[in-house]
Structures are given as structure tokens and as C-alpha cells.
Specification:
Elements lengths: L12 E3 L10 E4 L2 E3 L4 E3 L2 E3 L4 E10 L3 E15 L6 E15 L10 E2 L4 E3 L1 H11 L21 H4 L10 H18 L1
Parallel strand pairs: 8-9
Antiparallel strand pairs: 1-10, 2-6, 3-6, 4-5, 5-7, 6-7, 7-8
The chain binds zinc ion (2 copies).
Protein name: Metal-binding protein
Pfam families: YceD (PF02620)
InterPro entries: YceD
Length: about 180
Amino acid sequence: MSLRSLDPRAPWVISTHDLGRRPGSMRTLTPTLPAPVDLAVGMIGVPKDADVELDIRLEAVMEGVLVTGTAQAPLTGECSRCLDPLTSEIEVDFQELYFYSAEDAGEDDLLLDGELLDLEPVFRDAVVLALPLSPVCGEDCPGLCAECGVRLAEAGPDHRHETVDPRWAALQGLVEEQKDDQEG
Ligand SMILES: [Zn+2]
Ligand SMILES: [Zn+2]
């Protein structure tokens, strides 16, 4: 529950002035807003100030304003397998009831500040939940060679190393020493 007062000039602060408070009253908005800062999880996120295209419906209900919407935003990040830069996009749905009065609202509910509501926390939560934990540049990205770190997509399917496990090498050494002893 947030009681801080909102800045009417902040891009994600929406005015419900035109909506009014008569239950059933409805408005739709399709603003393009700059992405807020720090909207990333791990290796991928929405770049700050990127265009977020919103399609929102505001609906006055008894207790407050119900906001239902979708948002489309670009994503940039790194492939979790090959570490190449990647770009993609994300579309999220959200719905939130902003209460007129703190008396009706629960701990985690959002409140209107007069005629204003802040859409940013709702958009932020929806995006953070929807971001892929292990983004990939392509579903078939083979990643990096565990041995030398080369990109397997460039090195080709025949890339491998003639390596001997160090523990195995130690054993081999032992066997050869014993042979020497017997022959010795
Ligand atoms: Zn990749
Ligand atoms: Zn290799």
C-alpha cells in the first residue's frame, strides 16, 4: 500500500480526471512511455527509455479504478549459452485495482493519489515475472565449448579436444612406472 504522493509529470503517472468516479465509466488509452530504469533480471531486460507501447483500459468501479492492459517492450541482453548479444521483445498483460481509500485496500494494494495512479509498479512486476531466466539467441544455440570457450556455432559440429582427464593421466603415469620397475 503506497501513500506517497505522485508526481503528475512523471511519465507513468496516469490521470483519471476524464474517467470520473461513476462506476461503469470507462476510458481507453494507448500511450507510448519510456521504459523505467533497472528493468532487468539476470542477462536480459528492457533498456531504459526504450519505447513501451501500452494499450490500457481504465474502468471506474465502486472501490476504485480497475486498470487492465497490455504492454509491448523491446528486450536486450545476452544469450545464456553463447554470451552473444541478443535483442527480442516482450508482451505482458496486467490488471490492477487502484483503491480510492486506504480503508478498503489491503497491505499490497495500490492506491490512487487523488485523480492520479502510478502504472510503473504494475508494469514492472509484469515484466520481471515474464523475463526468461535463461535467454537464448536461438532455441538451437549450441553454446560455448566447455574446454576452450570457442563458439560452437562457428567452430562447427566436429569441434572437440583430444584431452585426457588429469586423474586418468596420473593413473597412466603410475602404470608406466610399474612397467619400468618390472622390466628394470
Ligand atoms: Zn547463443
Ligand atoms: Zn574447444
